[in-house]
């Protein structure tokens, strides 16, 4: 049961003063991504942390205030100058002075009565806001704060600045966060006292209060002790949650999966290529795991195009030879269909019966698949989320493979394994991620890596090109298309909305169509599955030569004879994503080109990212660079996809805390596996606070 001390925080944010349904929707946009999968609760606001501060301690005097600076001034009010009657375009000006000079405090659409009350002529007041120059004179337009000289203490001297979204005012958000802070109960301490002493940390509530009410800009820094304390809390919550999942998964013993090898041999014989040494060694690690009576819990990391699918197929075949069934779950429908079309012809050579199950299989077709899975008539199923559904039952699921791409959480992975009697599990990721991140996102899994690409692949030539060379680029592409090459054109990442994304893709499609006619296809996330398939088929078979696409092609799409990829507004993408996208070409034996089309001026990090892309094609190295440049959020996927990232911890500052937290979590659970001790109970509260409700539920499920 959830500790009752959490009750005041476990209520919808709409129960806070000043938060109606409309504001709630806006606030949910700034609540950290991991939490926003459900409706936000008041407690989530605690972790909406400021990214900077406004320092209002700066009191230079009017004459010394720099343009654009936010300053606080002690001034005397001289006179009011309301706009001429009926002329709303002229502002209301209040003239003030101090020892150093004079200025105007300016208001548009002012409420005159309110101004007369708050800035009475002759009174000494404090105004705080941004300095602007108007007609060569200093002025402050719409000060953020006005206080009488007596009330000056009410001014926040160091004011936190929060991430905002269109329509959400800082004041509204601050007020909501203030209420969440006020609802914090007296927490039991969940950290090890020894650790706290070493780190000289404040307690959890104290740390939050310090960051939300900073006394100094340094308090709002991930390196400050308060922030480190919270980061450690969060990392520990993650590690305990992963350890609980692992304990649950490995509690039931697995079984040895050993077959006679005939079907595996049939598939190997049908492959048009030899497996790489990397693929062979990953397979023998997987084989060894599967042969053991313990359950396999392994992560297969492969760089783009390294050939994970065939490794997955051979592992599944082993499970089937041993008398069980196997499931492969993909993050998108496009990918599920692609895996199916790769796997099906090979599997049928070995006499396996294979099915696909996504949201699209409906009615009688679906019923037939479900029955065949339950009776065991289907050996191998490829699918999407649809495989999680309760109606999906297996006769004997022996191996579950999750093609992860960071879109599934720990608990979803668990959900699929719950469909068998302790099946083995293999998680595949296409973005190589550094060891530290493997630990945080996946816990203690065994890792196999595909570090090598199939023989005969040529390096991809990568160039960056400013947008003003667009015409020249289109000319080159025109030549390439005339030679029969295939081109991906990736549309810019647009944050605002699905509509904006679509508009930009359609616009580019239209522009390229006017040049290349009906040899240009368009694929985007809003299309139906069938339409997407059709567009992909036409591109694969060469009916279209240029494919304009949003990032739906980012993961896994395999058209081996595509040789050029243009990434428009490359400066907006993270490194991991650029690397994934680039991996759509260079999958065959022809040489390929990746064009990073950008709009100058480039920021410093964008410049660095593009140069890493030009210099390296090693996904493992790029992942390390990404971690340095951007932090883990980008690396684990884009914000939109709800990644197993963090809300507070930032690994570029807090990676050193990981190992300690991991050991701490292990020790804790070794001593108190059900979290029943005093510290264990406190840890339960911690898990809930960081949204790990599912992990606590596992305890009850036993
Ligand atoms: N050993 C091999 N030799 C030659 N080609 C191979 C080999 N293994 C796989 N391939 C081919 O390489 C391509 C990429 O394989 P696959 O789609 O499995 O890659 P992946 O690891 O899933 O990469 P991504 O994550 O980028 O999609 C496929 O066309 C596949 O047929």
TrEMBL record:
Q: Which InterPro entries match?
A: ATP-dep_DNA_helicase_RecG (IPR004609), DEAD/DEAH_box_helicase_dom (IPR011545), Helicase_ATP-bd (IPR014001), Helicase_C-like (IPR001650), NA-bd_OB-fold (IPR012340), NA-bd_OB_tRNA (IPR004365), P-loop_NTPase (IPR027417), RecG/Mfd (IPR047112)
Q: Which residues form the Helicase C-terminal domain?
A: 473-628
- The UniProt record lists the EC number as 5.6.2.4
Entry-linked SUPFAM superfamilies: Nucleic acid-binding proteins, P-loop containing nucleoside triphosphate hydrolases
Question: Quick check: keyword DNA-binding in the entry?
Answer: yes
Reactions listed under catalytic activity: ATP + H2O = ADP + phosphate + H(+); Couples ATP hydrolysis with the unwinding of duplex DNA by translocating in the 3'-5' direction
**Residue ranges constituting the Helicase ATP-binding domain according to the UniProt record:** 289-450
Q: Which UniProt keywords apply?
A: ATP-binding, DNA damage, DNA recombination, DNA repair, DNA-binding, Helicase, Hydrolase, Isomerase, Nucleotide-binding
Gene Ontology biological process terms from the UniProt entry:
DNA recombination; DNA repair
MF terms from GO for this chain are: 3'-5' DNA helicase activity; ATP binding; DNA binding; hydrolase activity
Similarity remark: Belongs to the helicase family. RecG subfamily.
What task does this protein carry out? Plays a critical role in recombination and DNA repair. Helps process Holliday junction intermediates to mature products by catalyzing branch migration. Has replication fork regression activity, unwinds stalled or blocked replication forks to make a HJ that can be resolved. Has a DNA unwinding activity characteristic of a DNA helicase with 3'-5' polarity.
What is the name of the protein in this document?
A: ATP-dependent DNA helicase RecG
| Species assigned in the record | Pseudaminobacter soli
Q: Which gene encodes it?
A: recG
């Amino acid at each position: 049961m959830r500790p009752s001390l959490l009750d005041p925080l476990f209520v919808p944010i709409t129960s806070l003063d000043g938060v109606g349904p409309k504001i709630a929707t806006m606030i949910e946009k700034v609540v950290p991504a991991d939490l926003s999968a459900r409706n936000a609760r008041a407690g989530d606001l605690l972790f909406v942390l400021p990214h900077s501060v406004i320092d209002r301690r700066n009191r230079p005097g009017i004459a010394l205030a720099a343009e654009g600076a936010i300053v606080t001034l002690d001034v005397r009010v001289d006179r009011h100058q309301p706009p001429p009657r009926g002329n709303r375009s002229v502002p209301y000006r209040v003239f003030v002075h101090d020892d150093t000079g004079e200025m105007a405090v300016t208001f548009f659409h002012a409420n005159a009565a309110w101004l007369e009350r708050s800035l009475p002529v002759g009174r000494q007041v404090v105004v705080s806001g941004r300095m602007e120059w108007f007609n060569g004179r200093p002025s402050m337009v719409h000060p953020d704060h006005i206080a009488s000289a007596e009330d000056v203490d009410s001014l926040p001297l160091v004011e936190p600045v929060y991430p905002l979204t269109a329509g959400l005012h800082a004041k509204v958000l601050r007020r909501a966060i203030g209420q969440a802070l006020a609802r914090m109960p007296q927490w039991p301490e969940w950290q090890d006292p020894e650790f706290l002493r070493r780190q000289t940390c404040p307690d959890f509530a104290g740390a939050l209060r310090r960051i939300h009410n900073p006394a100094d800009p340094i308090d709002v820094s991930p390196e400050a002790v308060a922030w480190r304390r919270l980061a450690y809390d969060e990392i520990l919550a993650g590690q305990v949650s992963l350890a609980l999942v692992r304990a649950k998964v490995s509690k039931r013993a697995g079984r040895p999966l050993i077959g006679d090898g005939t079907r595996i041999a049939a598939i190997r014989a049908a492959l048009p290529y030899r497996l790489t040494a990397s693929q062979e060694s990953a397979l023998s690690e997987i084989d060894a795991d599967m042969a053991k009576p313990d359950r396999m819990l392994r992560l297969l990391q492969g760089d783009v195009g390294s050939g994970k699918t065939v490794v997955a197929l051979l592992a599944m075949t082993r499970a089937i030879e041993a008398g069980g069934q196997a499931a492969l779950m993909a993050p998108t429908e496009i990918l599920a269909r692609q895996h199916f079309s790769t796997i099906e012809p090979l599997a049928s050579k070995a006499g396996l019966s294979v099915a696909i199950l996504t949201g699209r299989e409906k009615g009688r077709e679906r019923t037939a698949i479900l029955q065949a899975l339950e009776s065991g008539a289907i050996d191998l199923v490829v699918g999407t989320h649809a495989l999680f559904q309760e109606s999906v039952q297996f006769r004997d699921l022996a191996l579950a493979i999750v093609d992860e791409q960071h879109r599934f959480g720990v608990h979803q992975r668990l959900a699929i394994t719950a469909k068998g009697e302790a099946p083995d599990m293999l998680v595949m990721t296409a973005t190589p991620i550094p060891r530290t991140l493997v630990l945080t996102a996946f816990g203690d899994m065994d890792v196999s890596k595909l570090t090598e690409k199939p023989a005969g692949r040529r390096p991809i030539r990568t160039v960056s090109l400013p947008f003003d060379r667009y015409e020249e680029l289109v000319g080159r592409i025109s030549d390439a298309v005339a030679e029969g090459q295939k081109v991906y054109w990736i549309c810019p990442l647009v944050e605002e909305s699905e509509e904006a994304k679509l508009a930009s893709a359609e616009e580019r499609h239209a522009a390229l169509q006017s040049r290349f006619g009906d040899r240009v296809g368009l694929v985007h996330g809003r299309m139906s599955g069938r339409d997407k398939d059709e567009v992909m088929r036409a591109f694969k078979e060469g009916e279209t030569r240029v494919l304009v696409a949003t990032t739906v092609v980012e993961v896994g799409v395999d058209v081996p004879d595509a040789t050029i990829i243009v990434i428009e507004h490359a400066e907006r993408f993270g490194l991991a994503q650029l690397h994934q996208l680039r991996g759509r070409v260079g999958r065959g034996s022809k040489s390929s080109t990746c064009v990073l089309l950008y709009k100058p001026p480039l920021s410093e990090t964008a410049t660095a990212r593009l140069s890493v892309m030009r210099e390296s094609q090693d996904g493992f190295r790029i992942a390390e660079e990404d971690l340095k440049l951007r932090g883990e959020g980008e690396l684990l996927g884009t914000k939109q996809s709800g990644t197993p990232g963090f809300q507070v911890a930032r690994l570029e500052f807090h990676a050193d805390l990981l190992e300690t937290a991991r050991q701490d979590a292990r020790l804790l659970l070794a001593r108190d596996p059900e979290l029943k001790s005093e510290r264990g109970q406190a840890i339960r509260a911690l898990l809930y606070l960081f949204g790990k409700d599912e992990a606590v539920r596992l305890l009850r499920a036993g």
